[in-house]
Specification:
Blueprint (H helix, E strand, L loop, with lengths): L20 E3 L1 H18 L5 E7 L3 H10 L4 E10 L10 E5 L9 E9 L3 H11 L5 E9 L12 E5 L5 E2 L15 E3 L8
Parallel strand pairs: 2-3, 2-5, 5-6, 6-7
Antiparallel strand pairs: 1-9, 3-4, 8-9
Helix pairs in contact: 1-2
The chain binds 1-O-pyrophosphono-5-O-phosphono-alpha-D-ribofuranose, hypoxanthine and magnesium ion.
Magnesium ion binds next to loops.
Length: 192
């Protein structure tokens, strides 16, 4: 009797230098500076808590925090999500909560990318339970075509079409987070 095993997933890791640059590090720096200025104006005279979503948002948060001139502190959360691309149930689970209370504080959740919206809509609900004075969302990238739940960011560096990207914190199978530009990951290299 023939038994058929599922084929092992083949992951290809082409060099990032072979990938098309969508946004150069200079363009990113320009947009981050502009967002920092906008946030500083919107929160003039107040202090804010930035909450980064590990791991993707770490690099954007570190640049954004330094582009904001009003008092700010930061904290991190981590979530695990299961088969986001394939399963529409979109189960998201918190695996690291905030370290410090945010009740009565002005909070901005910071993400690298808003894609289906499942991660941010889960986190927004969770953070609202902590009764912050206000809650907004800043994202480096917004991929509106992929949205499965209605959610929008308040601060967006760039909108992108439905293409997979890497760099500036974003990974493919944990690689390429340290790439300085945001680049298009080639469709043909995605593991099947
Ligand atoms: O809008 P969504 O469809 O929910 O997708 C966006 C989320 O997915 C990625 O994180 P991921 O869970 O892959 O983990 P990572 O941040 O550690 O890369 C990305 O960093 C966002 O957090
Ligand atoms: O385009 C993407 N790149 C990396 N991680 C992601 N998570 C959701 N979309 C993406
Ligand atoms: Mg993430």
């Amino acid at each position: 009797m023939a038994t058929s095993k599922p084929a092992p997933v083949q992951l290809n890791f082409p060099p990032s230098s072979s990938m098309e640059v969508l946004f150069s590090k200079e363009e990113i720096a320009g947009r981050v500076k502009a967002l920092g200025k906008q946030i500083s104006e919107d929160y003039a005279g107040q202090s804010i808590v930035l909450i980064g979503v590990l791991k993707g948002a770490a690099i954007f948060l570190s640049d954004l925090a330094r582009a904001i001139s009003v008092d700010n502190t930061f904290d991190f959360v981590a979530v695990s999500s299961y088969g986001r691309a394939r399963v529409s149930s979109g189960a998201v689970k918190l695996i690291k909560d905030i370290d410090n209370p945010i009740e009565g504080k002005h909070v901005i959740i910071v993400e690298d990318i808003l894609d289906t919206g499942l991660t941010l809509s889960y986190l927004r609900g969770l953070m609202l339970q902590h009764m912050p004075a206000s809650l907004k969302i800043a994202t480096c990238l917004d991929k509106p075509e992929r949205r499965l739940v209605p959610i929008e960011a308040d601060y967006i560096a760039f909108q992108i079409p439905n293409q997979f990207v890497i760099g500036y914190g974003m990974d493919y199978a944990e690689k390429y987070r340290n790439v300085e530009d945001i680049r298009l990951f080639p469709e043909e290299a995605v593991g099947h």
